[in-house]
Amino acid sequence: MLLEHRKAQNESAEEEQEFSEVFMKTLTYTNRFRKFKNKETISAVRSLLMQKKLHKFELASLANLCPETPEEAKSLIPRSELQGLWNQEQTLRGRGLREMVLLGLRLWRLARLWNLRGNGA
């Protein structure tokens, strides 16, 4: 999305500059392999991942790699919080943005209750 934004800015500028071959190849690659196609989905995923206070590298890894199972996620990032994230992600798949936000609020409340009871990591 950022690369597309940069390309659109350049196209709307008075003096359009030619992009480097590396930029164009990177743009092609990211368009081919990106998992999330619109800003709403990207925002929802980012919001969900940021609730767990993961390191920026961990956030980017989970968002880009989209592991299929908790075991796969734990092999990439060994944290106990990943099981909960995976369960949330599985529940959110196939739902609209509104439903995702509402479910996210419910999951956040459950996580708070879990942490208040002393069960959190």
From TrEMBL:
TM region positions: none
GO CC, any one term: nucleus
Keyword list, A-Z: Nucleus
SUPFAM superfamilies membership: HRDC-like
Xref: SMART domains: RPOL4c
UniProt domain RNA polymerase Rpb4/RPC9 core: residue ranges: 1-108
Compartments in which it is found: Nucleus
MF terms in GO: nucleotide binding
GO BP terms in the entry: DNA-templated transcription initiation
Ribosomal protein keyword on record: no
Main localisation: nucleus
InterPro entries referenced in this protein's UniProt entry, alphabetically: HRDC-like_sf (IPR010997), RNA_pol_Rpb4/RPC9_core (IPR006590), Rpb4-like (IPR045222), Rpb4/RPC9 (IPR005574), Rpb4/RPC9_sf (IPR038324)
Domain of life: Eukaryota
PANTHER family: DNA-DIRECTED RNA POLYMERASE II
Entry similarity comment: Belongs to the eukaryotic RPB4 RNA polymerase subunit family.
Official protein name in the record: RNA polymerase Rpb4/RPC9 core domain-containing protein
Species the sequence originates in: Timema douglasi (Walking stick)
